[in-house]
Structure formats: structure tokens, C-alpha cells
TrEMBL record:
HAMAP family per the UniProt record, alphabetical: UDG (MF_00148)
Keywords: Cytoplasm, DNA damage, DNA repair, Glycosidase, Hydrolase
This enzyme's EC code(s): 3.2.2.27
Lineage, broadest ranks: Bacteria, Pseudomonadati, Pseudomonadota, Alphaproteobacteria, Acetobacterales
Location(s), subcellular: Cytoplasm
UniProt xrefs under CDD domains: UDG-F1-like
Alphabetical list of NCBIfam families matching this protein: PRK05254.1-1, PRK05254.1-2, PRK05254.1-4, PRK05254.1-5, ung
Residue span, Uracil-DNA glycosylase-like domain: 54-214
Organism: Acetobacter estunensis
The protein's name: Uracil-DNA glycosylase
Amino acid sequence: MSETTVKLDESWRVALQKEFDSPYMKDLKAFLVEEKKAGKMIFPRGPDWFRALNLTPLSSVRVVILGQDPYHGMGQAHGLSFSVPRGVRVPPSLVNIYKELYSDFGIPPARHGNLTHWAKQGVLLLNSVMTVEQGRAASHQGHGWERFTDAVIACVNEQRTPVVFMLWGSYAQKKAAFVDSSRHLVLKAPHPSPLSAHNGFFGGHYFSKANAFLEEHGLKPIDWQLPVEANEVG
């Protein structure tokens, strides 16, 4: 992966150029090429690997919601953590996120799972690992993506503008443990998965806390209500 082979928002390209030039990213590219040559189906599709970064430029980031892996079912992953394209069944974790959003803000659960509206407002929906093989959860862990997304988080952490980090689950909390909580708001909770949501995810008021923090620092709050009409792509 290099500047010439990856279409990437300019702010991220400049900030992450050292990563793209590093041997581990060249190894990651070679791995993905070999996987494709072997006939394996990789999700999301290539143009969507960096979709989270392209929809949310570095200077626009106001909130980070950190996921682990892309969904590995057909048609689910489209480059944004927890999000699925319209027409795809809303995944269980996102159902629980919607429940918490309703409890927090009174926003009725959307009938779709496309979170593009959030991303365009500055919500970086970042997966720690940005690709996966069809039907094989966590199949691309340990090949370099984690190091790359560590660099992404570090770039956000270094921004002067305060940012809200929503770290749901122990994986996200460990990955972003270096975030400067004296400047940024770090909201920790159990993962919204049905396996853990009832252990403390519900009732966290993450969305109202995020908006209150943004407004306290003179920043525009997030409109968490997703549009009914299909005014976004993917």
C-alpha cells in the first residue's frame, strides 16, 4: 500500500505517510494480494478499506468509536465500525447501541444500520483491523492492521482540538489506553454485544455526554438521529 495505490483523504495521507512507507504495510499489502489470488473473499471491498478515514478527515474528527473487526458476512462490512449498508439487517451490537441512544436522547431506533451520517459529522468509526475473510472472524488479525490503526488513534490523540473517545469493551480500552484523558473525554463501557451489554453498557449516556463535552469546548454537537431517507451511499 502506497500513496500511489491507495485513495486516501489528503489529511490522513500526509499524517500517515510514514506508516504507508513502512515495511509492515508492504507486508500487509502482500498478504492481502495473496489472499485474493487464493480466491478468498475479503470484506469490505477494496475501495471501502479506508472509508472511515475518507468520510472523516483528521481535522474533522470530534468523536472516535472504536470497533475490532469488520463484519464477515456477505454484504455487511462497508468500512465503518458497527455500521452496515441499507438493506442489511441491523446487527445485534448496533441494535443495542440504538437502544442506548433512545434511552439517552429519545431518538427512535433507525430501521437501517448505515452510520454514514455520523461519519460525515466527524465521528470516526474505526475498526482496529480493517479487513476480514468471509465467514472467518478475526482472520486478518496480526498482519499489520493493528499497528496502522494505532497510528491513526495516535494522530487523533495529538490533535489540539479535544475529542471524545467511546471505548466499548476491553479490547478497545486496551488499544486506546495511551489516549490523553486530561485533554480528551474517554468514555469506557462494556461492549454493546448481547453477550455483555447488560453488564454496564446500558445507561451510560455516551451520546449526551459526548455532545455536552463538545459544546463545553465550543464545538458543534453531533446530530445522532440517522436520516430516514437514503441520502448516503453504501
